[in-house]
Amino acid sequence: MERIGRCCSAIREWEQYAEDNSGAVAPDSRLAADDALNRSFPASTAAWSSIAVAIDHLGLADDSLSREGGARLHPFAFQAVCRSALVAASQALWVLTGGRDTRLRRLQLIQIEDTEKALGFLQDYSRDETLADDVSAEFIAALSERVSSYTAELKRLKKEVRPQRGEYNVTRTLRDAAAYVATQRPGDPWLLRAYVSEWRMASASAHARLWQSEILPHEDIPLVGTGQRLRLTTGTPQSYGMSLSAAVMATEEALKLWHAHSSSPTTN
User: Fold this and answer.
1) Whole-prediction pTM
2) How far apart are CA 21 and CA 230, in angstroms?
3) DSSP string, the chain
């Protein structure tokens, strides 16, 4: 419970920090130099937006634990919310760590994935045969133009970057981020176990997989006269603490790097 309390206190501080900051970087900072290498998809934008998304999800997790009248426990949903924060913070760590060539490569891989997803979203709309009945001709023309623009941009990026199969995926991002966090927190194996456990367990919850219900705290109740059993899944301070701590740990490390690399070298 003490760990959870510390996490919630940190989250509230970060929410205020995110509200007071726009993601701007000093002109002579390392992030500004990284931005200059890929102006169509700046490193600072990718890092700060990922951190902001992580803090936003953590704020929702804190709300569920700190609500008036006591915490309302939703073990599967709580894991999914914390997983979203963990993924976002890990992406920030991914583009903020490594040598300059590594950081640029990672940024470009994320840019390709981002462009692909945006194009897929727009194409889904453009293929809707009933859309023209509900929107203006100007909207349809603008949508078509956006599809063409994203298609051209994706073609350019793939030709320039030449991504390798399997070079970028969320699991790889999480693994690399976890490896970095391990170098920063060698004296706290519990937190590192939480990081490793959370991305698998929470992914199972988010995708409604059954295997994690064998591991989450639960109770089997026999249903009299049926030969069947009712399973009740719940949460404990340990399970909630692991979910929350993993995401908070990743966000804290991402914020440390953000502070260091968005400021002037003389202020670091």
Assistant:
1) 0.86
2) 49
3) -HHHHHHHHHHHHHHHHHHH------TTSHHHHHHHH-TTS-HHHHHHHHHHHHHHHHHHHHHHHH-TTS----HHHHHHHHHHHHHHHHHHHHHHSS-HHHHHHHHHHHHHHHHHHHHHHHHHHHT-TTGGGTS-HHHHHHHHHHHHHHHHHHHHHHHHH-PPTTSS-HHHHHHHHHHHHHHH-TT-HHHHHHHHHHHHHHHHHHTT-SGGGGTSSEEEEEETTTTEEEEEE---HHHHHHHHHHHHHHHHHHHHHHHHHHS-GGG-
Among the listed residues 99, 104, 122, 120, the one whose alpha carbon sits nearest the alpha carbon of residue 46: 104
CA distance 216 to 205: 10
Tracing tokens 């941009």 back to the chain, one arrives at 153
How do the pLDDT tens digits run along the chain, 268 residues long? 678 889 999 999 999 999 999 899 999 999 999 999 999 999 999 999 999 999 999 999 999 888 766 666 777 788 889 999 999 999 999 999 999 999 999 999 999 999 999 999 999 989 998 998 999 999 999 999 999 999 999 999 999 999 999 899 988 998 899 889 988 888 777 666 767 677 777 787 778 787 776 666 555 555 556 666 544 455 666 777 778 888 999 999 999 999 999 998 855 4
- Taking the CB of residue 116, how many other CB atoms lie within 10 A of it? 14
Non-local CB neighbours of 70 within 8 Å, separated by 6+ positions: none
Residues in the chain: 268
State the amino acid at position 106 in one-letter form.
Answer: R
